[in-house]
């Protein structure tokens, strides 16, 4: 509720004050802290600019007025990883209620919500634990208005020795990774998609039966093996995919390799692919936007353009969209 009225105020004020030449008001604010492992590196300026690029992109795609504090650390293992400062478990019904009542509902949300039953699990689904909770990281909990007093944010770890550098030759960079893309992947996870959007990693490798104790992550609710059949197996020979219409449409396959995150993608190179893509600078795309949207975030016009595959609006066009969209938003108000 607070968000809607704030949005309306911002739009009206912006349009009245500066005509059509306004940009969307970015509402997500990620505040970076650079650890000394980065600030003392000989390529600190470059790494910090790459991290800032990833942050400003994500800030421009998400509309929720949430502040997320993220510390960035350089490490010499893996490629990228992250830890959340805090999180909370929420009953399934409370989570769905928050999705319905604390979001600005997009077309993707409308589709996704229809697929979420009033109680979970439904007969035939695994897990079958009636006390199943949905595990939410602190940023997503804050976005959904869940009472939460802990710190909102986390830490991103990046292997500095594996990253592309501007002073390297093409050949040297071809087997290294884009700092911006790796950091975007990890920030996504702190926001509740990718690895941190799934709780399947809490189940031992090869498990294919019924979950009894583990929580389910928000993204696991949209994980299917076929039309109408959710998948919670960690079997490496299984196929699971992300779908927001009950399994009818496969948007992208989820990773089933136990060496990676079950909430990450596999297949065509994308930011959220579990194993990263050397030699390429990847930007966030439709699948990452859709995932962020349906787990509870609101997208800006820029984020929605990315989600729906529409051309990214220029600032002037965007202002028209913002102004023109206002009556529609007002009509879409829900209890
Ligand atoms: Zn991941």
Topology of helices and strands:
Blueprint: H1 2-18, E1 29-34, H2 36-39, H3 44-61, E2 67-75, E3 80-84, E4 87-91, H4 92-101, H5 107-114, E5 133-137, H6 138-143, E6 153-159, H7 170-174, H8 179-190, E7 223-226, E8 229-230, E9 241-242, E10 252-254, E11 265-266, H9 286-295, H10 301-308, H11 315-331
Parallel strand pairs: 1-2, 2-6
Antiparallel strand pairs: 3-6, 4-5, 7-8, 7-9, 9-10, 10-11
Helix pairs in contact: 1-11, 3-8, 9-10
Bound molecules: zinc ion (ZN).
Zinc ion binds next to helix 8.
Number of domains: 2
| Spatial arrangement of strands, main beta sheet | 8-7-9-10-11
What ligand molecules are bound, each kind once?
Answer: zinc ion
Please estimate the helix content.
25-40%
Q: What is the approximate shape?
A: globular
Number of helices: 11
Number of DSSP E strands: 11
| Overall pLDDT level | 82
Please state the structural category.
alpha+beta
**Strand percentage, roughly?**
5-15%
Distance between the termini: 9 Å
Backbone CA Rg: 20 Å
Unreliable stretches: 1-22, 122-128, 203-213, 317-335
* Biggest sheet record: 5 strands, antiparallel
How would you describe the overall organization of this protein?
The chain is of the alpha+beta class and 335 residues long. The protein has 2 domains: 1-26 and 311-335; 28-299, no CATH class. It is 34% helix and 15% strand. The protein contains 11 helices and 11 strands. The chain has helices at residues 2-18, 36-39, 44-61, 92-101, 107-114, 138-143, 170-174, 179-190, 286-295, 301-308, 315-331; strands at residues 29-34, 67-75, 80-84, 87-91, 133-137, 153-159, 223-226, 229-230, 241-242, 252-254, 265-266. It has a 5-stranded antiparallel sheet with strand order 8-7-9-10-11, with no helix packed on it. It has a 4-stranded mixed sheet with strand order 1-2-6-3. A hairpin with a 2-residue loop joins strand 7 and strand 8 (229-230). The longest helix has 18 residues, at 44-61. The protein is globular, with a radius of gyration of 20 Å. Mean pLDDT is 82; it is low at 1-22, 122-128, 203-213 and 317-335. Bound molecules: zinc ion (ZN). Zinc ion (ZN) binds next to helix 8.
